[in-house]
Amino acid sequence: MFTLPADVLLHIFSFFPLSDLCHLLKKTSQARPEEQSRLLLNFYVKQVLLARIKHEAWDIVLDTPSNYFAILCNRDMITKIRPIARLSCVAYNSTSEYLRFEINDDESCFEMTDDEIEFQSMRIYCAQWFNLFKEDDRSGQIKLLWREGDQTKQIDDDLIIGYRCTKKVAASAEDNCRFCSSNNRCNKHAFISTPSALKQRLLQVHSIRVSLDWLRQGLTIQD
């Protein structure tokens, strides 16, 4: 089989079911340096898997613990629950084996109160995984520090998150009252001396960079 050109082999592997690709990848991952055929096979399978993830626009999802628990109980909920954020694969590097995911919806933001420093309870997973992180598995938990401006959080060598922190001032109820003016306030708002405003802290994850090894966590096939 290895006498075939590389492009032919890659084309053949592109028709393999995902489960078969993952099984083959697992079998060749422990190849020794002298096992050139297994090493080459491992390389080809990785290239096909990287291309498939990009072509199919796999999703990395950030969600609340309660939503995540519901999904663990019923995988069908993945398509029914609106997550905090959903990022799709837009590119990959075949040499470093890293993939880049970007936000689908520019309006997807976490809203935090002035008292919050970190968003304490975010869960991360890939929607295409066979096996999700267990509820008590800390590997699927992340915390992001709020600091105004563009930020980068490197969880480890396999997971890097790019996010943006902004402040937004929202008018309070009395400021939106059609009976109030700058000089006169209605009876409902008469005792408020100055217009008040609600300061919102917003956090938006706009990109995630992950290694193929990180994605493989949920693609384990039991022998």
UniProtKB/TrEMBL annotation:
Protein name, UniProt field:
F-box domain-containing protein
